[in-house]
Amino acid sequence: MLHSIRKLLPVIILALFGCMIGVACSDSDSHDEDSEEMIDLPASIQQYITSNYPSNQIKEAELETSCNDEQVYEVELESDSEEEEELELVFDLEGTFLYSKSEIKTEDLPEIITQSLESTFPDHKVEEAERLKQLDDGSLYIVELENEDSEVEVLIDDIGNVICELPDDDD
After folding, report:
1. Are 60 and 34 in contact (CB under 8 A)?
2. Which of 40, 119, 144, 159 gets the most CB atoms within 10 Å of its CB?
3. What is the DSSP letter of 24?
């Protein structure tokens, strides 16, 4: 009996070591805010990125829920070039490109959007803004608004119509 346990000891140690590594590497129970999330992307998305952004690498890829409760792939790219801004691409579940997302200065928001936000959220101040550029050259904006009591993100079209309020994901 002792001899068979000795024979199995290396297998048991390897199995336990594998379990420990699996637990240590798994982020299903906890999420380190500094770690980047990465999911497997459909081949069509990988091909789109390779063809259209050859000097960029995928920094982060995750599934997100849009304000209309549809899941989308958000892919953050980083470039070797220091002058290029951070860029995020968004795709539907079939891998079709929907829009690119990039941060903009709050003062660069179109006046019609600023006026709409001031009338819809009069006691909030614009803190951050992102432009969502669509293939048809249309734009949407995600704007983070704050006051002393609350924070809200809104999706707004390029003529000032608030499309929806987005869940705060504390990026």
Report:
1. no
2. 144
3. H
